[in-house]
Amino acid sequence: MLLRKIFILFVCFPLFTLQAQKPITSKKSQKSYEAQRIGTAPTVDGILDDHIWSEIPDATDFVMVEPGDGTPSRTTHPTIVKLAYDDEAIYIAASMIDNEPERILRQFTQRDNIEQSDFFLIDINTYNDGENQTRFVITSAGAIADAKMSGNDEDYSYNVVWEGEISFDDKGWYAEIKIPYAALRFPKKEEQLWSIQFGRNILHLNEVYTWNYIDKSIGKDTQYNGLLTGIKNIDPPVRLSFYPYASAEVDNFQGNTESSFSAGLDFKYGISDAFTLDATLIPDFGQTAFDKVELNLGPFEQAFGENRAFFTEGTELFTKGNLFYSRRIGDTPIGFNTAQAKLLDNEVLIENPDKADLLNAVKISGRTNNGLGVGFFNAITNETEAILRDTINGLNRTVVTEPFANYNIVVLDQQYNQNSSISLINTNVTRNGHARDGNVTGFLFDINNKSNSFNYSGEAKMSNVNKLEQNITGFASSFSIDRTKGNFRYAIAHEFANETYDINDLGLNFTNNYNDFHIETSYRIFEPTKTLNTFNIRLFADHQRRYIPNIETSSNIGINYFAINLERFAFGNFIKYTTKRKDFFEARRAGKFVKYNDNIILDGFISSDYRKKFALDINANYQGFFNSEQDNFTIILNPRFRFSNKFSMIYSVQYSVSNNRNSFVALETKKEIFGLRDVQSIENSIQASYNFNTKQALNLSFRNFWSVADFKENNFSILKENGDLDPYNYQVTKENDPNANFNIWNFDLSYSWQFAPGSEAILLYRNSIFNFDKQSDIQFTKSLQNLFDQDLRQNLSLRLVYYIDYNIAKNIFKG
To answer: InterPro entries per the record (predicted)?
Structure first.
């Protein structure tokens, strides 16, 4: 009882200190800059010779944020910024002085890709809430990038239309930027009060400076902006833009050539000064990147990253609570794997689409003056059917594998004190007819105390799955306390889910029925030492339990560190010991588990200086099991070549091997069959880019993944109730052979051209080959030869997207 009281006091005492909070200024006072209204806009060409700039005051006296802490900028490398505005936009002129301009790195890249270049950035927070802001970046090569920021998180999938140009001379480099008000969201009032931050990265010195001081030991970067005053009598413009597109493609496979043409429209509309509607009508995702498909031998589905821009841009509200896995929309139909089972006598499967067609999707998001974020998302997918044919009479019939479905998300996120938030989110999937529906509601909080020294975060989520025969309700929760200030830090956390928690209609959740505990402590530096710029070491321990029945599944303890020296050479290590583990998922049958011995994981990496023309990343991982011949080993090599400022390439090779693992084979009546399995994998990939300039580029992407799973003969077993395995005489036939040989090849070659602001043309050639068989005894070279014997799919496509801004089009038509 005494321990419980002490724990409650430890958790709750810091909460009593929560008060309304001003922006953090720490040991440096908050700077302020008064913007000047101008009558004639400057020519945005990167040359700061417009007469208006001579009349605008300077923002200067930058201070170091990396690797040091508040050190004034070098006298040889001052940064001078000027800001003005008119009725249409704000304008920024920045001078990045460098006494060694020949050392400035200038790698040419495309939008949102900085690589090895100096850069200048502007962070603008139009609501001065210490949390949400927009970042604009321009590099010393002239490439631009923009991101939506929330705390220390950057989302570069966010894109708006703005202008930026650079120039060079013998004193350094210069940037001139125009940010239209249509690229920002701000309230309609007589005088705006924004916060702003300027930053500069000097790559050859390995130093980063900001205009307003940032204390890295406490709080978030977005809480350290300076103030921007003086912007008066501006009206939020009509934020309406259209992105019409057209695409054409030719596809050749197995001697058949097909061509297609499609057109559609995306648009954005500012419903108010704070809220924006995004919609995609007749969407086309034909040129999205290939998924990194692998041989999946585990009990869980393989998760893929999102490659469709509509589902990555401006989705920060919808991803709260990790309830939204956008790949569910337009994913494999829920009845895809059962289509074969629905065949009648003399029927064959003619067509079985592996994706449901997305008809349209909309999202509305924004934040009020009081810090309330509101998000609404809705998407509709079409009914998907498999086609079955009677081989006797030749007649076809259809089977619905995915009914017409609606996907919906509603989010409310209240931010306060410039460092805390409380959120409510609901996701819902409704399928037409007698099919599975899903609904999940989550309550989240993320609270920092007044001094930003402690963070309290937690979630409570309830799932409800509606099936024909019953409704199933589940629950999950998490809670953590983190010390978030200073060199020494610590944290405790708890995570729970009951056995019926299921968010997989619109989310992604692999496990449930757990009751886990976590504790850690760490030490980090904020100023460089004689040998290191960055150092962080962490000690942690976890204890995992099953909720029902209440038993331990495993425990572990570990340590990891990460460091970067003065020459930008990074290295780190990870060591973890795990006790004997009860795996309740590998058996593929509810309530059954298999035991795995205690083990130790050793992981280490090195990464050389990317500023050099050649750099190398190496990562190696070994997992060894005690009193067992089971082990795993992986090594990854990533050499990086920068042949010139225009041409670069990254090659990656990964070799993995897993030996003597007791693995699932098959289910029989009241029996779970296991076998002793070896797995070997090799992955080769290349990413290369030739940039003619910052608007045109050739890009090559290649990946080949090979994996074999080989079950050892006469080493099969059945699972006992206590998790042990007994030898079993399992007869392997051609039909039930568990061995696998998997090989896949993807090749993309594209030319992209940003021919106007927000507008782009992409010409893409791609080919792909896939092979899967049971030849687990062959080597990589033989498997590759067999792969090339398969039919090659080739595809050539052209996609054009044109940006139309209502305000510009309106003026053109008036003229």
So the answer is: DUF5916
